[in-house]
Design goal:
Length: 217
């Protein structure tokens, strides 16, 4: 169906795990090249030390005025009640596959500055920066992540008692990537589909909006 490489992990000779490195036009850091978003996860717990490293990476992300407006709700499969609670805050289409991930998280943004209560218009942006730090550290730890926009925001607010000045942004599945055959139907097809991205000239402009910058043409 495609030419994406499959790998075997030591001690898991019968398990074919897919790698989908970015087909970059220019040099990239290997963590960025190797990062992708699988939906198949192995039933293997994430070691506490690795999870803490992933969260520590989020902690050290940059933010406007060093406000650090991010929060993360975390649930591990080893804690079934907490896991079911967070899983229930995802839309059905995500629950179908995310239930197999050993760790689920929800990122939240504080929409006002702590010092003066004024709106923080970059809060969601900064949560995105923290999330990307987390994602890349996960790759460094041999883990995989999959971000989800499909969440029940009001249910999250009610379930977890989220303050009014905070907003749920996204959910995250974290764990060890599995094999495409662990999925069925359209999910399996999406797992195997090649990764695609816009060309730089489609979003890097100069002079006026829509005019590609000379450096990318």
């Amino acid at each position: 169906m495609n030419s994406l490489p499959l790998i075997e992990r030591p001690g898991e000779a019968s398990l074919k795990l897919m790698k989908k490195p970015a087909r970059a036009d220019y040099t990239l850091n290997e963590l960025i090249r190797e990062r992708w978003s699988p939906r198949a996860f192995l039933p293997k717990p994430v070691e506490p030390g690795k999870l803490l490293s992933v969260l520590e990476a989020a902690r050290w992300a940059p933010s406007s005025s060093n406000e650090q407006p991010w929060f993360f709700l975390v649930a591990r499969a080893e804690e079934p009640e907490e896991f079911a609670k967070l899983l229930g805050c995802l839309v059905e289409g995500n629950r179908v596959w995310a239930k197999a991930a050993p760790v689920l998280m929800i990122s939240l943004a504080k929409k006002t500055f702590a010092g003066n209560g004024k709106p923080n218009r970059t809060a969601s942006h900064d949560v995105g920066l923290a999330s990307e730090n987390m994602v890349l550290e996960a790759v460094a730890q041999g883990l995989a992540t999959h971000g989800m926009a499909g969440i029940e925001r009001e249910k999250i607010r009610e379930t977890y008692g989220v303050p009014e000045d905070c907003e749920a942004i996204a959910a995250w599945a974290l764990g060890y990537a599995g094999e495409p055959d662990m999925l069925e139907g359209a999910l399996k097809e999406r797992e195997q589909a090649p990764r695609e991205r816009k060309k730089l000239s489609e979003f890097v402009f100069a002079g006026k909006f829509g005019k590609p910058a000379n450096v990318v043409t």
